[in-house]
Prior knowledge:
This protein is an alpha/beta fold. It is built from twelve helices and eleven strands. Helix 1 crosses helix 2, helix 2 (about 25-30) crosses helix 3 and helix 6 (about 115-125) packs across helix 12 (about 290-305).
Amino acid sequence: xxxxxxxxELGALELLLAVARLGSVGxxxxxxxxxxxxxxxxxxxxxxQIGVPLLDRSPRGSRPTEAGRLVVEWARHVVEAAQALDAGxxxxxxxxxxxxxxxxxxTVAEYLMPGWLLALHSASPGTAVTLRTANSADVAGRVLAxxxxxxxxxxxxxxxxxxxxxxxxxxxxxxVAPGHPWAxxxxxxxxxxxxELAATALVLREPGSGTxxxxxxxxxxxxxxxxxxxxxxxxxxxxxxxMTGAGPVCLSELAVVEELATRRLVEVPLAPGLDLRRPxxxxxxxxxxxxxxxxxxxxxxxxxxxxxxxxxxxxx
Length: 316
């Protein structure tokens, strides 16, 4: 049932309560941050709307009439209920703003996200974060479906339907076990060429992976990548395959820092022109902007993320 046109707005009721409590339109106006003429006009407008005088005015101040006292009592219940509603809405917003769901590609989730989330916890310790992992294609699908507040993908372009910004740069490397013939190659004498890499059966990530997409795009000019020797779903599995001598592996340099330092794996030098650099992007639905904890995390990644490749750029 719609309200009668005689029911005043909430702001006018708050003003009436302040006048009744303070005994003066001027003091009530000052408390509520409006001018006295504005407050007087609002009270008179409310009296016309209701159809009865609400205040007795005198040089000593203003006090409610008999009808005004009734309206003040009723208004008090309305304003208290509105204040309770306001507090409840604030609590809901705080609960919403204190939650963050992130979905990230496996490389980003394993090697970059821990540092970013630690920085977020330091800045906003009350934020509860849920981190899910998927390959880049699935990350894009989940963000588009509204299953995450923010996504992180690998690959040369921003997925369709999403906006994004480059937050870090990465480079793919080809690694082999120390006993593999490619481990003896030297950058100045025998770097691995594009045609050689394209013709070799590699141990690769599964289709839909950003790592796989970057490699296939780089090798397209050489006739495309050969049929994979194996397809595995994680960097850990790829490294294990390479260390057991299964074959050459192409994966993020972030994933093999320790293995290269301890010589459990050897990086194969690439010939000039074989560019396996790639950007790492934060993504969100096109036409929207990250807000709350998502915006805060995005800012932290852009300040603290590694930058090993070309300059960062924004996209929309």
